[in-house]
Specification:
single chain; 426 residues; alpha+beta
Length: 426
């Protein structure tokens, strides 16, 4: 045996042993548990929802969101889902806002991406920031500031922010005041804020899910809620969850889109098309509360009467869509909870008639009794006027006979049984 071979063989054994030890350690290390603490459904920002050309590039964009769950670590997911060109992130920063409705922040931390302070999001893609050690209480507000050197093509975002964002020319992500900023009522490129920490793992257990996604149309998105009020029905649900010891670590993500439909595109992609991205792909999801269908029903007769065959076909298509969504959720171990479609009699935009009301009743009968859903929240029963069940109760009606008032949103959030999220998964 030569000297070279006598050295090489033990070295090879040692290397193999070290690799095996490292692999065993990696397998033994517990995976980080991430909870969706805030999120929004992404869509193309067009028309009034898009940033104007003079504010679309080489800008700092500061956006404030309210978290549901708290943690000791945080990461952010940024989206270029509808872009046709790569989106450059020139800098990113998170901080606590000091006054809601303003761009003011205190302190904060630079976000990095794979260790770098800049990043490129491919067309159609999304990226996570690196985790940051930051103690955040449940219900805390967080400001996310992005420097976008170039205009997005087209812009990806969420129009129904019900919160005030701010833009200013140049890179000012860490500036405490953002002097000269222009306000905008939309979110852009910001898809999720996730939290993690030992308390989450301790309470939920290693195999327990931690995130609830509420998915639907403008009623879930919170149409009519004033900026910074945070009184959408998912907000009310989040308040109740964090007030109860058994559910205080659960996060709520609002994936509502105004005008959304189950079967056809509207102001955003249809529910069947977006379900994987907006529900299944999110971290820690164990439950999806689905409340949608009023726009599918209303559009049927919005512009002209429909035949009996068209009415029957729509109900059949909607119920088939519900089955598809439930099957996809169950394939990923997610419980799907159906919300009954609320009344919209008297609405001037959809002007529903007796035939359309019969369709709504047929859809709700399916939601309640088909067994497709793991549970049902009967929003229709909670929100309808007992004297005129085809209409919202006056106290819960915003005035357009379709969208709830603030009291109505609170009644909806209060109607969700918290026991749904403490029972074992299927």
């Amino acid at each position: 045996m030569t000297v070279g071979s006598s050295v090489a063989r033990p070295t090879a054994w040692l290397l193999a042993a070290l690799l095996a030890t490292g692999a065993d350690a990696q397998r033994a290390a517990p995976a980080q548990r991430w909870t969706g603490s805030w999120g929004s459904a992404q869509m193309i920002a067009t028309g009034d929802n898009a940033l104007p050309a003079d504010r679309a590039g080489a800008i700092t964009l500061r956006q404030v969101v309210r978290l549901s769950a708290g943690g000791t670590q945080v990461r952010v997911r940024l989206s270029n889902a509808f872009g046709t060109q790569p989106l450059r992130i020139g800098a990113a920063h998170i901080a606590r806002p000091t006054a809601l409705g303003t761009a003011r922040i205190a302190g904060g931390t630079t976000l990095r991406f794979a260790g770098q302070v800049t990043a490129v999001i491919p067309a159609g893609g999304e990226i996570y920031s690196d985790p940051i050690a930051l103690a955040l209480a449940p219900g805390a507000d967080l400001a996310v500031s992005l420097y976008l050197p170039d205009p997005a093509t087209p812009q990806t975002g969420h129009p129904g922010a019900r919160a005030t964002s701010f833009t200013v020319a140049g890179n000012h992500v860490a500036d405490p005041l953002l002097a000269g900023a222009t306000a905008t009522p939309h979110w852009y490129a910001l898809a999720d804020v996730e939290v993690a920490g030992p308390r989450i793992a301790q309470v939920t257990g290693a195999a327990r899910p931690t995130t609830i996604v509420t998915i639907g149309d403008s009623i879930t998105d919170g149409y009519g809620v004033a900026p910074e009020r945070n009184t959408r029905w998912p907000d009310i649900l989040a308040e109740r969850l964090r007030a109860a010891p058994a559910t205080r670590t659960l996060g709520v993500v609002n994936a509502g889109i105004g005008g959304n439909r189950i079967l056809l595109d509207g102001l955003g992609p249809n529910l069947v098309a977006r379900f994987d991205r907006d529900v299944i792909a999110r971290s820690g999801v164990g439950w999806a509360i689905l409340l949608e269908g009023v726009n599918d029903l209303g559009v049927l007769t919005r512009d002209a009467p429909a035949s009996p065959e068209d009415h029957a076909a729509l109900v059949a298509q909607l119920t088939a869509g519900f089955r598809q969504l439930a099957d996809r959720a169950h394939a990923h171990g997610i419980r799907i909870i159906g919300g009954t479609v609320m009344p919209f009699g008297g609405n001037d935009y959809y002007h529903p008639d007796a035939a359309l009301e019969a369709d709504r009743q047929g859809v709700n009968a399916f939601i309640r009794s088909s067994g497709v859903f793991d549970a049902v929240i009967d929003f229709d029963r909670v929100m309808r006027d007992p004297r005129r069940p085809d209409r919202l109760a006056p106290a819960f009606d915003s005035g357009d006979h379709l969208h709830p008032s603030e009291a109505g949103y609170r009644a909806m959030g209060t109607a969700v049984p918290l026991a749904l999220f403490t029972t074992p998964q299927r």
